[in-house]
Amino acid sequence: MKEADIERLKKEQKPLPANWRSRLVQLKQKRGHKENQLLVSGANGSAFRIIVRQSDTNPLDFSAILACVLPDSNKSFILRRYNGKSHEHTNPLEAKTFYDYHIHEITERYQDSPHKDETFARPTDRYSNLAEAIDCLIIDCGFELPSEPQRRLFR
After folding, report:
1. For residues 59 and 133, what is the distance between their CA atoms, to the nearest angstrom?
2. How confident is the model at residue 148, as a pLDDT?
3. What's the chain's Rg over C-alpha atoms?
4. CB neighbours of 76 closer than 8 A, spacing ≥ 6?
5. What are the sequence ranges of the domains in the chain?
6. Structure confidence at residue 149 (pLDDT)
7. pLDDT on residue 112
8. Which residues in the chain land under pLDDT 70?
9. Which residues contact 7 (CB under 8 A, 6 or more apart)?
10. Which long-range contacts (CB under 8 A, 24 or more apart) does 22-26 make?
11. What is the pTM assigned to this prediction?
12. Residue 34's beta-bridge partner residues?
């Protein structure tokens, strides 16, 4: 996938349902962590999945993920992953290692390597917990917040 295609998917408008946050943060117990997902349709017909995970034992071990669902399939690929500060990360092609909150992104360069497509990551100071990581994902990736119900001007 070319960089322009990646950017197009990331920027595609993705309207969120009215109760998106309450649906997403109701995490379900898995083995060693809690997780939930929310499917969202993009304005251009693409299907996306937001996945959130939180470790049972380490509050710094979390991920907020944007995945693109392949057409006519239940398979998906990760466009972005907002990780906690629970482990050291290395960008192998750049030979750079760091220990910080970090944002993974799919790149054309890593797709052409033996590593995962979304191996490349940049350190960030924009969030320090899962809720803030979700907010960054929403801001960065073309999501449209639902309109607030209009309040009555006159009672």
Report:
1. 13
2. 67
3. 17
4. 49, 67, 68, 69, 70
5. 3-144
6. 57
7. 94
8. 148-155
9. none
10. 24/50, 24/52, 24/134, 25/52, 25/131, 25/134
11. 0.91
12. 29, 54
